[in-house]
Specification:
Layout lengths: L11 H24 L8 H30 L4 H22 L9 H24 L2 H27 L23
Helix pairs in contact: 1-2, 1-5, 2-3, 2-5, 3-4, 3-5, 4-5
């Protein structure tokens, strides 16, 4: 069906918007880092969050823009472009497995295992598209990949704005892609 398509990448605006969104999220990470004066601002959890947002944000930027470039470089071969874009999306998950090792960034073991389980599901779903090369699925995967970024961002803002007493020990839980924002 799409094999005969020639011209611009279908829904090129979507991929351009995702690239721009990645740059915006990385910028917000910088703002959080600059303005966070809470007790947890230098903790391993905070460092994990900031580095995670920056890396994941630039990953979505490169994936969004890279798909458009890959389409032209491959001679407008849409199935190959979809496969290349899908591999771009899988790379941050591999980094996620490395960061999910036990350590000070993960004071809550349950959260760590939930994150690993989410990474397994997301990686499996993403790599399946390397075989199927489905264009709509690629777009859904890009949106699903934002879940972890948004969760990290939300939890960082939540912890930065949470009122803590001066005597309380800093507490923060690392983020997992499936942890839904809750009203606190």
């Amino acid at each position: 069906m799409l094999d005969g398509y020639r011209g611009a990448v279908p829904t090129e605006g979507f991929f351009m918007a995702m690239g721009g969104l990645g740059v915006s999220l990385a910028g917000f990470a910088g703002l959080i880092s600059a303005f966070d004066r809470t007790a947890i601002s230098g903790s391993p959890v905070a460092i994990y969050r900031i580095s995670g947002i920056v890396f994941l944000s630039f990953a979505v930027t490169f994936a969004g823009f890279g798909i458009i470039v890959a389409y032209e470089v491959t001679g407008q071969d849409l199935p190959l472009t979809i496969r290349i874009g899908t591999v771009f999306l899988a790379l941050p998950y591999l980094r996620g497995f490395l960061q999910a090792r036990p350590g000070p960034s993960w004071p809550n073991e349950r959260q760590r295992w939930m994150t690993i389980a989410s990474l397994v599901v997301l990686t499996t779903a993403t790599l399946a598209n390397v075989m199927f090369a489905n264009f709509g699925y690629l777009e859904v995967l890009m949106l699903a990949g934002l879940l972890g970024r948004v969760t990290i961002f939300y939890n960082t803002i939540r912890d930065a704005t949470r009122a803590t007493s001066a005597q309380a020990a800093p507490t923060a839980e690392p983020d997992s892609p499936e942890s839904a924002p809750s009203s606190s």
